[in-house]
NAD-dependent epimerase/dehydratase (Candidatus Parvarchaeum acidophilus ARMAN-5), 308 residues
Amino acid sequence: MKAIVTGGAGFIGSHIAERLVNEGYEVSILDILNTGDKNNFRSISDKIKFLNVNSSYISEMEKVDVVFHEGIYSSTPMYRKDNSLVWKAIQEFMAVMGYCVKNDCKLVFASSSSIYNGYPPPHTESMQPKVKDFYTEARYSMERLAELFNQMYGLRYCALRYFSVYGDREESKKEFANMVSQIIWKGLLDKEVVIYGDGSQKRDLTNINDVVDANLIAAKSNITGVFNVGTGKSYSFNEIMDKIETVIGKKIKRKNIDNPLKNYVDIVHADTTKSKEQLGFSAKIKAEDGIKNAFDYYKKLDTIPDIF
């Protein structure tokens, strides 16, 4: 079996590529190293093909069995700084879908729980996204275009709406890393964590290994559609801070400030019913265990990211 992983030098993509290699796939990685790093796939570097190109280059690639599209600008602040990333993300996605149709291969791509901004939990795939954010508009447009390609050309796809993915290998993402990684870094550096508001906002923490499981299950399934990838349990920022302090064994400095962001995502909490019943995916890793694994990884780094 052959696979392409766009963004395969990044946080999520490198973990997917590693799992694929371990399962015997021939893997090609396309990545411009925007928030990725070759060190992320160093354990499999002699077993994969790496191309320093963006996702549009996929049209030049030989036929594979499945494409994992992770090479998408992946953080709300990126889009707020440069909203032209919306059309860039869609333009590259069109090339990816065109390749998959031409080569009749399954497409699994990253979407986001930010799509549910403005809705009370739990968040179900049937909710109609509200207009809230450039990042969200890009991801939702991609989902709609995938459905259109399915109707028009028979594209086989799974769009996975990730909920607050955290874990090891986020250091190259720097300020765009998940809050869990950022808080761990602050704790290791004995620096202050800034929290917007009173810390009551909530996140459904999903470990990177569960996310990889979801991608592989989606790739091997005959299902087409949109699926949540979360745990079905959310924690407040204050609760997350407490869990991290327990793991690292010390208090972390906190500073609460007024939230300066418009249309801020207050809470994400996955309804996992559809993913369990139709896709066969259930997250397995508890937050406490995932945080411990992430901490054990980051404390061994030669240089802890000092992002602010």
